[in-house]
Amino acid sequence: MRHIPNIITAIRILLVLPTSWLLWQTAYLDAFILMAIAGISDAFDGFLARRFQWQSKLGAAMDPLADKLLVAALFIVFTLQGHIPLWVAIIVLVRDTTIVVGAGVYKLLYEEVEIAPTFVSKANTAMQIVMLLLMMISLLPWPMVAPIAGQLVDPYCFYILAVLGVSSGLDYVFTWGSKAYRQGKQRKLYKHAPGAFRKPQS
Q1: What is the pLDDT along the chain (202 residues), one digit of tens a residue?
Q2: What is the CA 17 to chain-centroid distance, rounded?
Q3: Whole-model pTM?
Q4: How far apart are CA 16 and CA 67, in angstroms?
Q5: Cis peptide before 155 (omega within 30 of 0)
Q6: Do 194 and 119 form a contact (C-beta atoms < 8 A)?
Q7: Distances (CA, A) of 20 to 70, 130, 151, 188
Q8: How far is the C-alpha of 82 from the C-alpha of 51, rounded, in Å?
Q9: Distance (Å, rounded) from C-alpha 80 to C-alpha 88?
Q10: Burial class (CB in 10 A: 0-12, 13-18, 19+), 190
Q11: Are the CB atoms for 42 and 52 separated by under 8 Å?
């Protein structure tokens, strides 16, 4: 039973490909439905993990990966279709790639990464999802809401997301870059300390 949240997360990862394909085929309503299912499942597996104490290291790694894969795929497709400016997509993708790669390098060199998302980072993630939803709605045959969604996306969401993406990316780079520098310095001092590797006598 405790693996149910991870199974749901794995299904959400598998939904990335069909959602992207439907989007590429301009089947926006079908893609919107799959995206809604992914969003609901994200909230549901998080609820189950917290409610029944089914958290795991695998789930902690898979959950943000599923979100980033879906966001990246949708941004790429929307950009190739000309709905999102290239400069916005570059900011989003470079920011997320830098965080993922940086976390991997930090774990390889030093220790396990336990990132606590800052307010700016949470706002950035929320803005990504809101913008993608509004973009999807603006492309649907809903004459009452589609034009309004489109006006909100361009230019307001584009500029807000750019500011949040740059600021949160720099925050992560500065925070974890400083921590990595301190870890490297401490390791260097320990390595050259007298008797650092001397086996203690019983």
Answers
A1: 778 888 998 999 999 999 999 999 999 999 999 988 888 888 888 888 888 888 887 877 788 888 889 999 999 999 999 999 999 999 999 998 888 888 777 777 776 666 667 788 888 988 998 899 999 999 998 999 999 999 999 999 999 999 999 999 898 888 877 877 777 777 777 666 655 544 444 4
A2: 17
A3: 0.81
A4: 9
A5: yes
A6: no
A7: 8, 17, 24, 47
A8: 42
A9: 12
A10: exposed
A11: no
- CA contacts within 13 A on the Cβ side of 37: 16
Q: Which two tokens stand for residue 165?
A: 């993406």
Q: Where are the domains of the chain?
A: 1-82, 83-192
Q: Which whole-number Å values give the CA distances from 41 to 60, 183, 202, in the listed order? A: 15, 38, 56
Q: Which two tokens stand for residue 56?
A: 């795991």
Is the Cβ–Cβ distance between 138 and 146 less than 8 Å? yes
What b-and-e string marks burial along 47-68, b requiring 16 or more CB atoms within 10 Å of the CB?
ebbeeeebeeeebeebbbebbb
Please report, for residues 40, 62, 65, 67, the alpha-carbon distance to residue 12 in angstroms, rounded to integers and kept in the order given.
Answer: 10, 10, 10, 9
Backbone angles phi and psi of 84, in degrees to 5: -120, 130
Structure token pair of residue 58:
């695998």
DSSP string, 18-30: HHHHHHHTT-HHH
Amino acid identity of residue 191, one-letter, is K
Q: Tokens in use for 106?
A: 């930090």
Instruction: For the beta carbon of residue 185, count every other beta carbon within 10 angstroms.
Output: 10
